[in-house]
Amino acid sequence: MADIICVIGNKGGTGKTTLSHMLCQGMGLLGQRSVCVLTDTHREPLDPAGRRYLIADARSREALARVTDKIRSLKAWLGVIDGGGNRTEMDRRLYELADLVLLPFRDSHEDLRTVIRDLEMFPRAYAIPTQWPTNAWQREAAENAVAQLLASHRDRILDPVFSLSASKILLQKQVPAGLPTPLANACRAMAHQVVDLLQLPLEEGIIPWQGAARQAAAPPMAVAA
Ligand SMILES: Nc1ncnc2c1ncn2[C@@H]1O[C@H](COP(=O)(O)OP(=O)(O)OP(=O)(O)O)[C@@H](O)[C@H]1O
Ligand SMILES: [Mg+2]
Fold this sequence. Notes:
Layout: E1 3-7, H1 16-29, E2 33-38, E3 54-57, H2 61-73, E4 77-82, H3 88-97, E5 100-105, H4 109-121, E6 126-129, H5 136-149, H6 181-198, H7 212-216
Parallel strand pairs: 1-4, 1-5, 2-3, 2-4, 5-6
Helix pairs in contact: 1-6
């Protein structure tokens, strides 16, 4: 049966939509079929042309039920549901139906406070640092803040998705042919984390570019014990 991943969290602008699309694109690059599901009533569906995944519009309660039933009925597919900030009831519903829940957060104390609350509210969820600083000093400061404030949840923090200007390409209505290599690598690295968490049986060797992400990925985030 297909797996469903929900990308949620109480705070707006943390990178839920970007992460959902990066994850789907990365899955496509690894040979895994996926659907990126829009639930945010303030956004329009994006054009699927040129992407390595499908797009589903589930902006109403009925559409969400239909789309999740359809995904569940497909063998070996993944559904990635992009939540919308400030919708606690919706987040609770998505949490209940998900096999894996991701809570993106940025390098700010406000995001950290919010993600701590979300981690406590959603005990199966994983937090994932997004738009993470690439500058060494800023990164160290960000990691120190996480180590201090999220110490008791350190087993539930994934490797960061770094700040990458090209990530906005995936949120364009239409994507250009051929994505920049750093974006493709970041998408694969993200997808690999989820493959590991869900223990997805990828068919190694079939996709020629598979495996490159591990080498390209930045080192795991150090969170002090
Ligand atoms: N890894 C990244 N690197 C650089 N910019 C990013 C990254 N992830 C997200 N952004 C930028 O941050 C902004 C917010 O991202 P996004 O729309 O994905 O957040 P969101 O959580 O879906 O927001 P909302 O709560 O409004 O739905 C966008 O301008 C996006 O381009
Ligand atoms: Mg969004």
